[in-house]
Amino acid sequence: MDAYDKGSNARPVPGEPAAAVPAPDSSPPEGHETSDVRETATAGDHETSEGRGTPDSPESPDSHGAPVGQKPSGEAPARIPQQYGDQQPYEGQQYDDTALAGPPLPPPPAGIAALSLPYQIAAALALAVVAVAACVHVGMVFLHVAPSNTVTKQHGQAIDEWIYPEFEQNWKLFAPNPLQQNIAVQVRADVRAADGEIRTTRWYDLSALDGVAIDGNLLPSHTQQNELRRAWDFFVATHDNANRPNGLRGALSEKYLRRIVVLRLDREQAGGRGAVVQQVQVRSRTTNVPPPKWSQEQVSDKPIVRQLPWWPVSEADRAAGTRPEESTGTEASAR
């Protein structure tokens, strides 16, 4: 090869500037190995290389000034993974010394498992009692609303004692002909005033009082909405048109309604302060709901009044919170 040849191995001509040698590609061609020593670009470097050693010398630097065995500047040297137990670190990953301590401890027990054995047994028994009571209640309600069958015929009295009066079910909303009447329950009473005189109070519209309490109330109570209404429905369902009770349920419904009206009269302070209720009389005033304007249905607008006889009030009818009869003399003497 003479001086006029072109390439990386061309011999330089004395007295002429050395041609710039392009930097070789860092990746060698396929099937070739990268040489550890490259020829210098200038004649001075060529002479220096001849005086210092052969191109195969392992101490000769490459054209970029990097020692033999290292990649040119700008490229990260090859990273040799270090052994750390049985694993090798990934790029940018650091080992945690706690990994050698074994698997993490399980979290402490919570809930019933955190209690001691006696408390666990007590909690299990309490949950079992609640579950049994819930199942019994659901079964009683199911038998109450289910059609007549062998079980209800044999245990009907026990089912009624469980259901009435607090858990009675009313399905009139889903009947083919739902209730289309407004029923107002009203009550008046004979009271003994603080001076000992017996007076008859005016009629108190208890349904209207419940309506005033519910109107505008975002969260009305269950008693305001259903207590009086369900008590009257219970009474009507267990009495005939002459207000005679039909068996034991009739007497129970009468007692239930009487206690409610006595409590409500005491709340309204019927007869004045210090007066005690002696007997009560209940009536209902039923009016039909007027049909819409587009309907051709004709209904009567006259109210239907059902008035019950006077009921004497005993001490058992005065619920907690009402004024006992003995308090009349004390309050009268205080006045």
Describe it.
With 335 residues, the protein is of the alpha+beta class. Among the domains are: 41 residues; 146 residues, no CATH class. It contains 8 helices and 6 strands; from the N terminus they run H-H-H-H-E-E-E-H-H-H-E-E-E-H. Strands 1, 2, 3, 4, 5 and 6 form a 6-stranded antiparallel β-sheet that branches. Strand 1 and strand 2 form a beta hairpin. Helix 2 crosses helix 4, helix 5 runs antiparallel to helix 6 and helix 6 runs antiparallel to helix 7.
Order of helices and strands: HHHHEEEHHHEEEH
The biggest beta sheet reads: 6 strands, antiparallel
Distance between the amino and carboxyl termini: 141 Å
Count of β-strands: 6
Radius of gyration, whole Å: 51 Å
The structure class reads: alpha+beta
Unreliable stretches: 31-66, 327-335
- Look at the structure and give the mean pLDDT: 74
Helix fraction by DSSP (H/I, runs of at least 4): 25-40%
How are the SSEs placed, and which strands pair?
Layout: H1 43-52, H2 117-145, H3 150-154, H4 156-163, E1 181-192, E2 198-200, E3 204-205, H5 206-214, H6 222-237, H7 248-267, E4 276-288, E5 304-307, E6 311-312, H8 327-334
Antiparallel strand pairs: 1-2, 1-3, 1-4, 4-5, 4-6
Helix pairs in contact: 2-4, 5-6, 6-7
